Amino acid sequence: MDKKKSAGEAVAVDEWPLQRESPARRALREVGVTHLSQLSKFSESELLKLHGVGPKAIRLLRDALAQHGLAFAPPNLPRAVNDTTKRGRPKRVSGKK
Question: Has residue 56 been placed in a domain?
Answer without folding.
Answer: yes
